[in-house]
């Protein structure tokens, strides 16, 4: 399965979708959209030869259960799923979709809890938010051996470079000014 690399344009607003399609990057992440729009967005993304990655938890009208996943797989056909929920990661893996577990680094207890969750669900990638802490990107990769995507609060090319130098495989950002990096 293809793993995303480099910059992952993350779509929060529909006005940014065309900009993301025009980039040279190999993937697009859909953060917030309505279920009714999702199939056509994924179709357009695939026609542009890009991976369509859907943040399962943020799709309005989609329930995070087996039936929601079944609908997504049969009707929408994304290449991968992002989620904070272990059951969604398990379902994505079971259905041979790229499974990206999103974790939030709030404090040391959250880090410990998230490392246990990663060990339990074995996602294909882990998206670490905020993606501004190079030492933690390195630490999480060393402890899990699972590729890391840095995301959240990334606002400059310097921060992108720092995350990539720390071992992040990719950096996701909804800041379209950074999509040219």
Automatic annotation (TrEMBL):
The keyword Transcription applies. GO terms for molecular function: RNA binding; transcription antitermination factor activity, RNA binding. InterPro entries: Aldolase_TIM, GlpP. It holds the Pfam family G3P_antiterm. One of its GO terms (biological process) is glycerol metabolic process. Regulates expression of the glpD operon. In the presence of glycerol 3-phosphate (G3P) causes antitermination of transcription of glpD at the inverted repeat of the leader region to enhance its transcription. Binds and stabilizes glpD leader mRNA. This is Glycerol uptake operon antiterminator regulatory protein. The lineage of its organism: Bacteria, Bacillati, Bacillota, Bacilli, Bacillales.
